[in-house]
Specification:
Blueprint: H1 2-19, H2 26-36, E1 51-52, H3 54-64, H4 71-81, E2 89-90, H5 91-98, H6 116-129, H7 132-145, E3 152-153, H8 155-164, H9 171-181, E4 189-190, H10 191-199, H11 204-217, E5 224-226, H12 227-233, H13 240-243, H14 249-265, E6 275-277, H15 278-289, H16 295-305
Antiparallel strand pairs: 1-2, 3-4, 5-6
Helix pairs in contact: 1-2, 2-3, 6-7, 6-9, 7-14, 8-9, 11-15, 11-16
């Protein structure tokens, strides 16, 4: 059965990639196939959660260009993707399994609409798995996503970015996530809104520890630290990734400095490039904080580094 599934998914993804465009996503193609394959029109959920039975599933795949050779394979595939085992296959259920994302539903077949906070948390979880570099990469990719270089993301640019992360979100979910990120309701998302929503705020206790570390380094109290001084003082040998032999001290130091280099590139003020501001210092540790659950562990990292 595993061979049947692997062959089916490989062929399906190739077809979807070939058919999709900048305007019509892979998800759009699948949704249209699901929706147009229903013999009896059921209640169509506004969150794009159409559902099909076994025969309709086979028809839907044919509309995409996949021919399931017989009913045995059809039944095997349907059973595999029918996560809640209720005898019907939801669009969100299918795409979640296809792209390796969590499906939120129950065994009675009730589809539970994820809140904006849950969607943001799902997105955040993907970044956490990538470690701090995921956040650094997000900062860098923000400018890439910003096609017209306006300093903000409109709905079209935001959607393209979400598709790149292959989260399996529906169009409706992407729209709600966009609205959630657009804190000031301007119709666009600036970088601060985006990163604030993705990582969430740092706990007050952790923020106080970070501020104490900065004050220790900022000896003259002018609000910034010379970057060469940081390079000489920062001690990565007790960083968790170094202790666990995942990375070398040099790699951690390079990542640490890359954070501030990326911040310098996005500054809109006249602060010299050879310094690290308090805001940039706090931002770095906010990124670290987002990947660490234990407060004591986070405190230890700060103390060991400085």
């Amino acid at each position: 059965m595993q061979g049947v599934i692997q062959r089916f998914e490989k062929e399906l993804k190739i077809k979807l990639q070939y058919k999709s465009t900048g305007i019509q996503s892979e998800e759009d193609i699948l949704l249209r196939a699901f929706s147009s394959s229903c013999k009896t029109k059921r209640d169509f959920d506004w969150q794009n959660d159409e559902r099909v039975d076994k025969d309709e599933f086979k028809i839907a795949m044919e509309k995409v260009g996949i021919m399931i050779p017989n009913n045995i394979e059809r039944d095997q595939l349907f059973k595999y993707y029918d996560t809640d085992k209720n005898g019907v296959l939801y669009f969100r259920e299918f795409t979640a399994k296809l792209y390796g994302q969590p499906y939120v539903g129950d065994r009675k077949g009730n589809f539970q609409i994820r809140s904006s906070e849950q969607l943001a948390e799902d997105f955040r979880a993907v970044l956490v798995k990538r470690g701090v570099k995921g956040f650094i990469g997000m900062k860098r990719s923000f400018n890439i996503m910003d096609d017209n270089k306006s300093g903000t993301l409109d709905m079209y640019e935001f959607t393209k970015g979400m598709v790149d992360y292959r989260l399996g979100f529906t169009e409706g979910e992407i729209q709600r996530l966009f609205d959630y990120f657009d804190y000031d309701k301007s119709g666009d998302i600036d970088y601060e809104e985006f990163i604030r929503a993705v990582r969430g705020p740092m706990k007050v206790g952790r923020k106080n520890i970070v501020n104490l570390a900065f004050e220790k380094l900022d000896k003259d109290g002018n609000g910034w630290i010379d970057i060469d001084e940081i390079r000489g003082l920062y001690t990565p040998k007790r960083h968790p990734d170094v202790v666990s032999n995942k990375k070398t001290e040099d790699q951690i130091l390079q990542e640490f400095m890359a954070t501030f280099e990326a911040s310098h590139a996005m500054r809109n003020n006249n602060t010299p490039n050879y310094v690290v501001t308090k805001q940039e210092f706090e931002e770095y540790y906010n990124n670290i904080s987002a990947t660490i659950e234990d407060d004591a562990h986070f405190k230890l990292i700060i103390e060991n580094a400085w």
